[in-house]
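To whoever is on call:

I kicked off a structure prediction for a single chain this morning and the downstream step that reads the tokens threw a length-mismatch warning. I double-checked the sequence; it's 328 residues and nothing unusual in it as far as I can see. Pasting both halves so you can look.
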Amino acid sequence: MISQDVSAEAHEWLLLVVSLPTQGATARMRIWRALKALGCAALRDGAYLLPGNAMHQEALQELADECVREGGSAWLMMISPTNTADADTYPQLFDRSADYAALVKTWKEAAATLSSLGVTELTRLQKKLRRDYEAVLAVDFFPGEASLEAEAAWTDFSQRIDGVLSPDEPHETDGQIPRLNVADYQGRLWATRRRPWVDRVASAWLIRRFIDPTARFQWLAKPADCPRKALGFDFDGAAFTHVGERVTFETLMASFGLEDDPALTRMGAMVRSLDMGTGSVAEGAGFEAMLAGARERLPDDDALLAEIGSVLDSLYAHFEREAARNKA
């Protein structure tokens, strides 16, 4: 998750020395915030250090130019340590251990409140804390033990939130996905965990739209309640669940030969990104927000599926039109 390509053996460093007029308080604050966001180490007031690379050089040059436009002065230079002691000291100026410790403390405090929060609050909290974490990762140019410990703590915290949002979330299984005949799966009873979140509601939509138009759904308080005659999905031991890197939505696509549909493939990528927290899909944030709001408003899961099904119908039409346009 490190966004910078900086070696601990770097021999060149960027030094920005700036001076702004005393009356330029607004510009001074704006430039200081930008320097902090870049992860600069302050050597003294007005002198800032960063590991040397093209991206850092471009960003610091823009700030230097802004200082000059505001009536100040700026010098950007490439420097190298003159001895081994300095070469060892420079990376230590970018130690993020304290930042990671503060994050972990925040996560532990937040974990104690999870059960009292609603879906919208949980989703908002997870996104905010993820942004804070990624901001530190982005400026951790020399990651070490603290970064590994924070990664483990974040994984644990995220799993706790997911456990509240989606109890009994299935674990991925290995193995091939057999191709099934859709004619054998008509008019069936399908079962999944109640209060469906992203993968479950999208899978239910996929079943009714492309696999079993007359499907009936039973929403389970716990997976053990699944009737023997029902086709379970999206829980451990279900007929259809996570396989390898595929979420249940994608497993259903593969099982019933729907993987050649480019619109469904895009929807699968969106479901996977939201369900597994991998990557980012432009439409994902909007869909997640609508689903969270619908879950707050609608206590009945059939009503929830009907409402979100209309949203997914519209998304499918949008993706289908884009696929046709790209093909033309």
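Update from on-call: the warning came from a stale cache, not from the record. Cleared it. Sanity check on the structure: The chain has three domains: 13-92, 97-165, 182-327.
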